[in-house]
Amino acid sequence: MTTGRTYVVGITDHMIGKPDLEAAVLGDDVEIDFFASTDEASFAPDRLARLDALMVWGARLGAASIAHLTRCKGVVRYGVGYEKIDLAALGRAGIPFANNPDYGTEEVADHALAMILSLHRRLFEHDARARGYTSGWQVHSLKPLSRSNRATVGVVGVGRIGTAVVNRLKPFGFHILGYDPGQPPGHEKAVGYERTDRLEELFARSDVVTLHCPANGETRGLLGAEGLAQLKPGAIVVNTARGELIDDLDALEHALRSGHLAAAAIDTLVTEPPQDHSLLTAWRDREDWLAGRLVITPHNAFYSDHAAVEMRTNAAKTVRILLDEGRLRNQITETP
Fold first, then answer.
1. How far apart are CA 72 and CA 336, in angstroms?
2. In this prediction, what percent of the chain has a pLDDT beyond 90?
3. Dihedral Cα 12, 16, 18, 22, nearest 10 deg
4. What b/e readout covers 229-255, taking b as 16+ CB neighbours within 10 angstroms?
5. Of these residues, 122, 168, 212, 242, which one is catalytic?
C-alpha cells in the first residue's frame, strides 16, 4: 500500500483508545500501523517488516517478532519496565531499545506516600473495623500506633521516584533510610536521607519499607520468604515498583497471618489480573484477620490524566527524534 508518507510507525496496543495523540506528535509524514493487540502471535510478519519504528505498551516482544523487524530503527516502550521485551534478540538484530522513564514520577511518589501514611496511621483497618462497632467509639483506637517522627521508613531504590518519595516523607518527620548501590557517594547528603550499604540493615531497622527499584536478577524475589523474615517485626511493606519484587504470595500470606508483617500495600503483581490464591481470596472476601491490612490497587500508581498525556507524548517524541536524528534517547542496553 502506498501512503505518500515517509515513515511507518507501529503501535502494538494501547490502554487509552486510539493513538491520536501520538499521530499529532509524530507528524504528517508518519503512517501509524495500530495493531490493537497485546497478543504477540497476532502481529503479522508483513506488517512488522514495514515498520521504521515500533512502540510497545503491554504486549510482549520476543525473538519471533523481532526477526521480522528488518527495517526497524528502534523499539520504544511506553512505560519504564521492559521485562516483556527480549533485549538480547533486539541486540542480535541490531535494533536499539528505549524505555520511557520521564513521566508519572509525581503520581507514583504520591501513591506510595498515600499508602505509607494510610497504613502507618492504620486508616484502612480503622475503617474496616469501625463498621462493626455497636458500642463505644474512640475506645476502639488500634494499637500500636506511633508518631511519624518516631518511625523509620526504608526506601529501596533512590532514583527519580525514590527521591521524590524521600522529599515527600521529610515534612512528616519520618527518619529515612535509603539503599541504592547505583547512586554515587554523597547522593544521600544532597537529597537528605541516611544511606545504608546493606539491604539487611534497612530491613531490620525500618518500620515501613517502600520499594522503588527495577526487577532484575538481583531484585526479583527481593521480599520473598527470606527477605520478609529479615524485616523488623510489625513492619509495613509498600510496593509501587514491580510485582516480581514480591513474587511469593505464600510467603506474604504467612508473614501477614503470623503478624510478623503488620500490613502491605501493593500496586503491581506478577500476574495481572491476579489469579486465585488464598491470600487474594481473603482480601476479596474482606476476611476479618486481614481487615485493612492488605491494600491492592490495579497497577495505576502511575496514572493521572496529566501523566497519561505525558507518557504518550514523551514516547512519541522519542520516536520522532529517532526518525529525524537517528538518535534514540533513554536507550537501554543491559539485559534485565
1. 22
2. 90
3. -80
4. eebbeebbbbbbbbbbbbbbbebbbbb
5. 242
Closest by CA to 22, choosing from 106, 78, 102, is 78
Domain 105-296 sits in CATH at 3.40.50.720
Closest C-alpha to 220, from 119, 336, 53: 336
| d(C-alpha 268, C-alpha 168), whole Å | 21
Which residue type sits at 141? S
Exposed e or buried b per residue across 30-49, where buried means at least 16 C-beta atoms within 10 angstroms of its C-beta: bbbbbbeebebeebeeeebe
Residue spans of beta strands (DSSP E) within the chain: 7-11, 30-34, 53-56, 75-77, 97-98, 152-156, 175-179, 194-195, 208-211, 235-239, 261-266, 294-296, 331-332
Joined together, the cell numbers standing for residue 181 give 548501590
Question: What is the CATH code of the structural domain delimited by 7-103+305-332?
Answer: 3.40.50.720
Identify the active-site residue in 187, 254, 260, 299: 299
Q: Do 7-103+305-332 and 105-296 have matching folds?
A: yes
Q: Which three cell numbers stand for residue 161?
A: 521516584
Q: Where are the domains of the chain?
A: 7-103+305-332, 105-296
Residue 272 appears among annotated catalytic residues:
yes
Residue carrying the nine cell digits 491490612? 293
Q: Which of 272, 284, 286, 306 is catalytic?
A: 272
pLDDT tens for each residue of 109-139: 999 999 999 999 999 999 999 999 999 999 9
Per-residue pLDDT of 217-233, as tens digits, reads 899 999 999 999 999 99
Asked if 106 is an active-site residue, the reply is no
- The SS3 of residue 176 is strand
Provide the CA 188 distance to its chain's centre, in angstroms. 23
Task: Determine whether 257 is an active site residue.
Answer: no
pTM, full prediction: 0.89
Assign 2 a pLDDT band (cuts: 50, 70, 90). very low
Q: Tell me how far apart the alpha carbons of residues 259 and 116 are, in angstroms, rounded to a whole number.
A: 18
Is 50 exceeded by the pLDDT of residue 330? Answer: yes
